[in-house]
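Just scan my protein:

——
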Amino acid sequence: MGAAVVTGAASGIGRATCVALAQRGLVPIVATFPGDPHDPQLTAAAVAAVGGSAHIVEVDVKDSAQVDALMQVAVDHCGTIDVVVANAGILRDSSLANMTDERWDDMLQVDLTGVMRTLRAARPHMAAGGSMVAVSSIAGAVYGWPDHAHYATAKAGLVGLVRSLAVELAPDITINTVVPGIIETPQSLDPVNSLGPEGLKAIAASIPAGRVGAPEDIAALISFLTSPDASYITGQAIVVDGGYTVRLPV
């Protein structure tokens, strides 16, 4: 089987996705930012636990040359790239009053342009039947989030990017956006820039499913969307949130 390149794969949704794709026989290319405090070796160990073999590559998605090199490593290691999951992202708290050009640009460089770089670099190495997924968020793709306008803008932009690429890359490549709801990850557990443990606990009562989501809930959809069973699904933004965004507001 060919490579499944997953960015932001050292923890959370990226790690769970690597495991899910390995279970289908793909070879996860664990793309991780050098400054990420999470250990990509734990992702490799989780992949090994399900009988797979992962390959770790350090990459900064703000650098086109590094992203291009990532894809070449994947090809050298596996021969082909079958799946690309653009999951790398950062989350920072900033009100409009405190939004400097640097904070705005840094967010979009990773969470929006970094996704474009990833998809652009992968395309020449993918044959007909390949699949791409961009990981967005209900913040931006569905609703607004105070003090996170730059993050929400980037995540909303992914929906337009994917819709356009779905038309451009058809019929050879399918591409979809996965839109996670409230998911317990290292990012959401950050009490400074996100909800933190107490915030997650409080919001769980508002979710019809009765719980906060797990990274595996998102990985399961990504695995399906990149499988032959989803070959007629492209250009879609699919929300995975336990019913949170469709509940009646109270």
User: Anything to note?
Assistant: The chain is about 40% helix and 15% strand.
